[in-house]
Design a protein that fits this description.
Structural class: alpha+beta
CATH topology of the largest domain: Phosphoribosyl-aminoimidazole Synthetase, Chain A, domain 2
Helix content: 25-40%
Order of helices and strands: HEEEEHEHEEHEHHEHEHEHEEE
Number of strands: 14
CATH superfamily of the largest domain: PurM-like C-terminal domain
Oligomer: single chain
Bound molecules: magnesium ion
Low-confidence stretches: none
Distance between the termini: 26 Å
């Protein structure tokens, strides 16, 4: 243990879980609302209103396929979508270090505007602070957002109840998964982290891959229109490995995935081998993982594949009652336990 906060405490893995449980939840795990803080879901819900806040410290600010502005809108919008929400409006907090070029600020605000239009969610309030040189690394964004029930969420839940009479959740939550549910991944993993690394100072390798950063409005619309989705989550910090372990723990199920079905680009796989990284632990910013009742899994897959962002979707595994952890059947037929990552192997990716 350490008596000061280290980078690993912000990296989305076990160390960050400890910080959240031992400090944040110890003080703030109170309040009787629909989805409280202590559930540690992608967004909270109070009185039917979905609320999300997220801060962005990505390094560098501009990277292949995106920038901090696109990341901020996408990250916040996506977490509202993940609980079954329709994002309504955003609030932008800008913390700018003295000396920051207006040209870069202009480019980032343009990107925020474009991405917000793409998601059809306006920025309606915000705050600007300027701090002295050395107080932070150039620029930090906070993006908060509100949402309401997605117009297709009730239909989605009715479909679930046709097959699972005792389904009682009103939202898509990490704790909703039951043995037999299929796990669907919307496309290639690892692109965002590898794209960022390829332009980091001091990292000397070239790879032709762009970040996947995008708002997931359309894939979620299509999936909920079909119905049968019990949980949704974006594999950001800590990647697929962290996501599946959170689901297994909160739903008290085991999860089995199949390595050969997980979409990974050759360029990303090669970069991971070169850098000693596990693609399952890399953060993504434009992917969704869905848990869907078995009866509707193929239909949801088909609907996802009809979207631009979900065209490479695959059913990568299923929930099981044979154990209560995450395992992967490897391409050579062995079984590998997938533990929750200690921390994201690459800091400052979002
Ligand atoms: Mg999330």
């Amino acid at each position: 243990m350490t008596d000061v906060v280290k980078m690993v405490h912000g990296a989305g893995g076990q160390a960050m879980q400890q910080l959240i449980k031992n400090y944040i939840l110890r003080h703030l795990a109170w309040g009787d609302v629909d989805v409280p803080l202590k559930m540690l879901d992608d967004s909270g819900v109070a009185n039917g209103i979905i609320l999300k806040s997220d801060s962005y410290t990505v390094k560098p600010l501009f990277f292949p396929g995106g920038d901090i502005g696109r990341l901020a809108v996408s990250g916040t919008v996506n977490d509202i979508l993940m609980v079954g929400g329709k994002p309504l409006a955003l609030a932008l907090g800008l913390i700018i270090e003295e000396g920051f070029p207006f040209k870069d600020l202009d480019r980032i605000l343009g990107s925020i505007s474009n991405t917000a239009k793409e998601a059809d969610v306006p920025v309606i309030t915000g705050d600007t602070k300027v701090v002295e040189r050395g107080a932070l690394d150039k620029l930090v964004l906070n993006m908060s957002g509100i949402g309401v029930r997605h117009p297709k969420l009730d239909h989605n839940i009715e479909v679930i109840k046709n097959f699972r009479k005792d389904f009682s959740s009103k939202w898509l939550l990490d704790c909703n998964i039951k043995p037999g549910d299929k796990i669907i991944l919307s496309g290639y993993i690892g692109d965002h982290t590898i794209a960022l690394l390829s332009v980091r100072e001091g990292v000397n390798f070239k790879v032709d891959v762009e970040s996947d950063v995008a708002p997931l409005v359309e894939p979620m619309d299509r999936a909920l229109s079909v119905g049968g989705v019990v949980a949704a989550k974006d594999p950001t910090r800590g990647g697929l490995a962290n996501l599946l372990n959170e689901w297994a723990e909160k739903s008290n199920v085991g999860i089995k995935i199949y390595e050969e079905r997980i979409p990974i680009r050759d360029s990303v796989r090669n970069a991971c081998e070169y850098l000693g990284l596990d693609p399952l632990e890399l953060g993504n910013e434009g992917k969704v993982v869905l848990a869907v009742i078995d009866e509707l899994a193929e239909d949801v897959l088909k609907a996802l594949r009809a979207t631009e962002l979900g065209k490479n979707a695959e059913i990568i595994g299923e929930a099981t009652n044979e154990h209560n952890y995450v395992v992967m059947e490897t391409v050579i037929g062995g079984l590998r336990v997938i533990p929750p990552p200690i921390g994201d192997p690459v800091p400052r990716i979002c």
